[in-house]
């Protein structure tokens, strides 16, 4: 079921500074309802900080964040989450000493859901191999399953916008396909928009019709991946940086 109304995420002239450090400046983009947008760039480009500002974890230095016609700028994390903008994390993010089932129950309670919320994720729990592990302590799960549980926790809150911070990081090849499946569930079942920060270029090419490239805190390029990743300035700024990290 898609969320009602026009739930476009608008980021307008967003900037963030920590003292004398300008993390990023004047970033603007639009993420229409139900669309997927990739954000790439070398380490230190400001990608995670951008997610932190959009999600309300950090206040912006300048600029605005709008969801539909609602002002999200500077609102705290819990208020932004309640409005429908949810984020995931690079590392696993669950209630570590609680069981898998209790983690899901807490997320459902947070969102005001009920038994229907459990029914909505039955197939997903089977697909991600979490169904047989509902009674296991979440921090005892293999790393890949902990990451998928974190995504499921975001899903059950029925977000309008999902901000995924390196969802494939640390996953094995077979597990990375689960990120594709998760994004499909979010779009088809929730009508959710998805912003993906990721270093896995194959995943970005598969899932994102359009991408943004951040470099040194500025928006270097935007457009379809095939076009953007062929640009010399993007190759110099990003692809070269990745090769240096691997070397």
Automatic annotation (TrEMBL):
Q: Where is the ABC transporter domain?
A: 9-241
Q: What is the top-level taxon of the source organism? A: Bacteria
Q: Which Pfam families does the record cross-reference, listed alphabetically?
A: ABC_tran
Provide this UniProt record's keywords sorted from A to Z.
ATP-binding, Nucleotide-binding, Transport
GO cellular component assignments: plasma membrane
Entries under InterPro entries matching the protein: AAA+_ATPase, ABC_AA/LPS_Transport, ABC_transporter-like_ATP-bd, P-loop_NTPase
Molecular function (GO) terms listed? ATP binding; ATP hydrolysis activity
Q: Does the keyword Hydrolase apply?
A: no
**PANTHER family in the record, alphabetically?**
ABC TRANSPORTER ATP-BINDING PROTEIN, CONSERVED COMPONENT OF ABC TRANSPORTER FOR NATURAL AMINO ACIDS-RELATED
Supply the name of the protein.
Branched-chain amino acid transport system ATP-binding protein
Species this protein is from: Chelatococcus asaccharovorans
Organism placement in taxonomy:
Bacteria, Pseudomonadati, Pseudomonadota, Alphaproteobacteria, Hyphomicrobiales
């Amino acid at each position: 079921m898609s969320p009602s109304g026009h739930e476009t995420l608008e980021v307008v002239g967003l900037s963030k500074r920590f003292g004398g450090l300008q993390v990023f400046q004047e970033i603007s983009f639009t993420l229409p309802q139900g669309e997927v947008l990739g954000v790439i760039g070398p380490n230190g480009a400001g990608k995670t900080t951008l997610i932190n500002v959009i999600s309300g974890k950090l206040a912006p230095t300048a600029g605005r964040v709008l969801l539909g016609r609602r002002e999200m700028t500077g609102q705290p994390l819990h208020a932004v989450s309640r409005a429908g903008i949810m984020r995931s994390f690079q590392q696993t993010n669950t209630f570590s000493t609680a069981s898998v089932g209790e983690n899901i129950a807490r997320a459902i309670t947070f969102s005001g859901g009920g038994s229907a919320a459990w029914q909505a994720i039955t197939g997903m729990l089977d697909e991600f191999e979490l169904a047989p592990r509902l009674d296991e302590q979440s921090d005892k799960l293999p790393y890949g399953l902990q990451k998928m549980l974190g995504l499921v926790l975001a899903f059950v809150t029925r977000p309008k916008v999902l901000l995924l911070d390196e969802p494939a990081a640390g996953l094995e090849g077979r597990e990375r396909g689960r990120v594709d499946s998760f994004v499909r569930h979010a779009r088809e079942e929730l009508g959710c928009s998805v912003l993906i920060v990721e270093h896995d270029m194959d995943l970005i090419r598969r899932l994102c019709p359009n991408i943004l490239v951040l470099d040194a805190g500025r928006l270097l390029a935007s457009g379809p991946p095939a076009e953007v990743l062929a640009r010399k300035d993007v190759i110099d700024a990003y692809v070269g940086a990745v090769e240096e990290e691997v070397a």
